[in-house]
Amino acid sequence: MGAAGHADGVILLRGGAEVYRYDSDHEPVFRQESYFAHLFGVKEPDCWAMIELPSGRSTLFIPKLAPEYAIWMGEIKAPSWFEQHYGVDAVLFVNELQAAVGGAVGSATPSQTPIYILSGTNSDSGLDLATVLPITEGVPAGSIVDSRSLYTVAAECRVRKSTEEVEVMRYAAWVSSCAHSSVMREARAGMLEYQLEALFLFHCAFHGGCRHQAYTCICACGPDGAVLHYGHAGAPNERQLLETDMALLDMGCEYQFYASDITCSFPLSDEFSADQRVVYEAVLDSQRQILNAMRPGVPWSDMHRLMWRVTLTHLSKAGLVRGDLEAMLEANVGYIFTPHGLGHLIGIDTHDVGGYLPHTPKRSDVNGLKRLRTARVLEAGMVLTVEPGCYFIDALLEPALAEGSAYRQYLVPEVEVYDSLSSVQQDDLESYAIGINPRGMATLKRVDPNLEKEIDVSTGMIDAWMIMAPPMKKIARMESGTVMGTTRGSVVQGLYKIAIATPGIEIKLGHKLVSADVENSTLTFFADGTQHVVDYSRSRLIDATGCWSKLRTAVAAADPTFKVETWPWEIHFRNLFTSDPPSGGHTLKPKDHYIFTTAGIYCAVLTGQRWAFSLSVNKTLQADGDWMLADAPTPELVAKLKAHMREHCPPAVSMIEEEEYARFFTRRSFTGQVVRVSRLNYGERVCFLGDAAHSTIPSTGEGMNAALEDVRVLIDALGSSPGGASGPWFATFNQRRLADVQAISSYAAYLLEGMKADAAERNRRTATMVLSLIGQSMGLLGPTWNDKTFGKLAVKMAPYSEVYEEWQSQMKKVQPWGNRLIWYFAKDGGRKQVLAQRRAAKLADAT
C-alpha cells in the first residue's frame, strides 16, 4: 500500500454474515470469512474490525443483540469478553462503527486519511471477495476509499506462515493423520464409501475437537478414484467397497480455521496387485524425489515437471507409454495422467490465497501447467501440499488415443486395459503439507506412504522412529514418522529388530538413567562405565532403565500441576535370558509376548540382541513364589524353574540354554513402583520407553496398573482413545498382525469381571469404555479370559473418572515446559491472543 502514496490510514474489514438455507430458518454452522479469521480469529458472525495505521491499533465491532437472544442462544457476552478473548485493543458495537471510523480518519478532514477495504478476485476460485459489498454505513462522507491496495498485501501476508501458525497446522494435520490411519484400519470389503467418511468425521470431532472439515470428503474406491472431486452431491461417497479395490481417501479437518489436506491410497485386500503396484510406486517415487528437491529458490512449476518426469519414467518401464522421455515431456504427455497441479498453498483455506498476485509469475497456458494453483518460487515460511497423482480417466484417455491426437504416438493399447480395471482405476496419491524452511522442507504430518512396510511385512508394526546417541548425535532417522509411547515388548521388539538390521545405528546396551533435568531438557545416563548427557528435546526414542519413573518425577517437580505419590509394588521381577541373539534363529510370535497365568505375567522383550523373559512374582497371591527370588541356584531350583517354564511359557523353552536357568538365580531381582498421579495437567501424556509400565492414566491399583495402562497406551497409539493419540509420538499398528493385543484385551476383559464387584457405577463405565475402545480399535469382538488370578485385585481399583474429566478439559493447555519436552497445542485465550496480535501487527508492518 506504500505504492499508493499513503503513510497512514484505516483498514476496515467486514466479517462473515450469518446465512440461512434458502427460505428456511435453518442456519448452517457458521464459519468465519478467511481474511477476517486470519487477522482476528473471531468465530462469531456479523462483526466488523478496524486497524489504524501506522499504530496498528485494532478495534472489533460486534452486533448488539436483543435480550431475547439469551433465551435461545445462551449468554450474551460483554465487550470486555471479546477484548480479552481475541486480544484486540478495543471492542465496540456495530452501531458505533461510523463514529469510530470517523474519529480515526478525522471527521473534519476525512479526505486526507484513506480507508482501505478488501476487494479482489481469488485466483483459485475466480470469485470476488464476498465481504466487499456495500460498506457505506461505516464510511464518513468525503472519505477516500481505496479498494485496490489492501487485497494484494493481505493475501501476501497469508503466504508465509509464522511459527505459531505452523503449530496450529501441525495439530490439524496430526488429527487428520490419526483419523486416516483409523479409517484405514477399519476399511474392509462390503462397507460403503460414506461409512469411511463417517469414521473420519467421528475421529476428527471426537478425538481431535475439530468440528469443521477443510473441504468435502472424498472417499473414492475402485473406479470412483478416477473422479478428481468425487464426493459431491451427485456422487456422494455411496459405492460399496470390493476386495479388489484401491481406496483413495482425500480428507482433512480444520482446526482454529487452519486447514489440513491429506490423501492416501491403499488396497482393500492388504496386498497390491501387480498393476496397482506399478501406479502406486510411480506416485510414491514422484513424491520422494519432489521432497528431496524442494527448497527455497526452486520454482513450483519445476516440481510439477519433475512429477511428470518420474511418473512417465515408471509408466514407460511398465509399457504403458512409449517414446523418448524428453519428447514426451515436451509434448506434455504427463497431463494425460495428471491433469491437476502438483499441489497448492495451504493455510486458512485449503487452497490458500497468494498463488497468483500482480508481482508473482503468471499462470501458464500449457495443458497441465495452467492447472497449477501457483507458479511462485518457493520461499521460507511457505506451506504447500505435495500431491502427485496418476489417473486413468476416460475423458482424457479416449481423445488422447483417437486418430489425429498428438498424444496417440506416446500411448500404447495396454493403457486401455488399465482403464478397464476397477482395481487400479484410481488417483493413487499421497499428499501432506510441507513447510519450507531456510534449510529445505519439513513435513507437518502425514500418513506413512510406505504401505508395503505395514501391509506386507508381518513384523512391521511401527512406521518409523528416530534414535539419538550421546553426546547429542543423531544416529538414525527413518523417513516415515516418529514414535514414542509404550514400555511393552511388541514395540521394543520392533524397534530393536529395525535397529539391528539398519546400518549406521549404534546399539549401546546397559543404559541406566541416573537423573533428569526438565529445565535444561537433559537426561544423564551411565553406560559402559561412562556418564552420558543427552538432550532429550531432540530425541524420539529413549530406552533405559528407570527412564520413565525418574523423568516423570522430575517433570512433576518442575510443574506445580503435578501431584505424584509412589509406593512399592507387591510384584517382584527377575529376567531369564536366551543365550543367542535373534540372528541365531530364535523368534517369538506376537501372541507369545504376553502370557498371563496364576504365576504372574511373562513379558517377552527383545532387549539388545537377546530375548528376556520377565518372570513376575505376586507375593500377595503366591505363597510359594519366593523360590523365584532365591539368591543362589541349586539343582532343585533349576529343575523347578524348567518345569515352571514348560508349564507356563512353552515357546521359550527351546530358546534357553542350560546355563541360563542357573544364571537366573544370580541376577538381581527387582520391584517396580506404583505411581499415582492426581491434579496432573493432561495436556499431553509424557511417555518414554523404559522399565516402568506406568504411562498415561492414573494408577488403578496394585498389579492392575501395568496391563490396563498398556491398553491405554495401545489405544492412544492407534489414535482411538477418548483423548486422542499421544502427540507426535504416534505408532501405527497393523491390527491383523498385532495378535498380542488379544492377550491384553483378554486381561482387561477379566479386569472388568472383577470390577463388577465394585459398587461404583463410574468404575464399571470406565472399564466398559476401555474395553469397547479395544474392540473398536483392534477389531477384537468379545474378548475372553481364562485366568482368574488378577480378579482378586480388580476390586481394589481406584476410580479415575474424575481425573479423566480433567484430562479432557485440559487437553489443549500449554505447559510452561512444553517447548522443550512435549508437543503442545494452541488453546483459546492466551495463545490465540498472541496469534491475533502478531497477525494484526504483521499486516500493519506490511502496509
From TrEMBL:
Matching Gene3D superfamilies: Creatinase/methionine aminopeptidase superfamily, Creatinase/prolidase N-terminal domain, FAD/NAD(P)-binding domain
GO molecular function: FAD binding; manganese ion binding; metalloaminopeptidase activity; proline dipeptidase activity
Superkingdom, taxonomy of origin: Eukaryota
One of the GO biological process terms: proteolysis
Keyword Manganese: yes
Keyword Ion transport: no
Reaction catalysis annotation: Xaa-L-Pro dipeptide + H2O = an L-alpha-amino acid + L-proline
Span of domain Aminopeptidase P N-terminal: 1-126
Entries under SUPFAM superfamilies matching the protein: Creatinase/aminopeptidase (SSF55920), Creatinase/prolidase N-terminal domain (SSF53092), FAD/NAD(P)-binding domain (SSF51905)
EC number: 3.4.13.9
Keywords: Dipeptidase, Hydrolase, Manganese, Metal-binding, Metalloprotease, Protease
Cofactor: Mn(2+)
Quaternary assembly: Homodimer.
PANTHER family registered for this protein in UniProt: PEPTIDASE D (PTHR48480:SF2), PTHR48480
Family: Belongs to the peptidase M24B family. Eukaryotic-type prolidase subfamily.
Stated name of the protein: Xaa-Pro dipeptidase
Species annotation: Chrysochromulina tobinii
